[in-house]
Amino acid sequence: xxxxxxxxxxxxxxxxxxxxxxxxxxxxxxxxxxxxxxxxxxxxxxxxxxxxxxxxxxxxxxxxxxxxxxxxxxxxxxxxxxxxxxxxxxxxxxxxxxxxxxxxxxxxxxxxxxxxxxxxxxxxxxxxxxxxxxxxxxxxxxxxxxxxxxxxxxxxxxxxxxxxxxxxxxxxxxxxxxxxxxxxxxxxxxxxxxxxxx
Length: 198
Ligand SMILES: C[S@@+](CC[C@H](N)C(=O)[O-])C[C@H]1O[C@@H](n2cnc3c(N)ncnc32)[C@H](O)[C@@H]1O
Hints:
Number of strands: 7
Strand order of the largest sheet: 3-2-1-4-5-7-6
CATH superfamily: Vaccinia Virus protein VP39
Helix content: 25-40%
CATH class: Alpha Beta
Shape: globular
Largest sheet: 7 strands, mixed
Low-confidence stretches: none
Bound molecules: S-adenosylmethionine
CATH topology: Rossmann fold
Structural class: alpha/beta
Distance between the termini: 37 Å
Strand content: 25-35%
């Protein structure tokens, strides 16, 4: 699977564009910049945006090609992104973060809950988790995402996985993606904003 992503990111063209995910950017704009962790950050479009807007950005992805590209983009933009190559189930930061952003970070069904629980533990008390991913209605569209329905997010699943957080917003939404060649057109997404109790 890792090689699938390396292959995708090896191309010069940005797979999901160089602009950030619109929902993440909108949510970050409402928060005071602090420390931000972006797991499964791919080529780093979201990291690049956040760093440009005053966030102290940490990110990881298990694709070395993705991390290399994010570091190149950071150098070109003259901003700092603390990116590393890591698997989501091995990543053990020595600290917690004000915000954790999960953008199209879909895991196999048997690993999803554990991954979401790990993400909760990466948040500091009072911190905010922001998530956007595809919901099962996405299977009718061609704008990207896993084709395995068990990897897609239902509202009930997210409410259960993140039950330890205070859920501010959890909804399934129709949108139109304009994110590079792989996320183009009408899409069905799930969005969550939740905070860890102080
Ligand atoms: C659809 S891409 C989204 C990339 C980025 N979040 C964005 O929105 O541009 C999914 C990413 O998850 C990463 N990924 C999947 N499983 C992973 C795992 N177990 N550990 C680390 N990264 C993983 C892939 O390498 C890929 O970059």
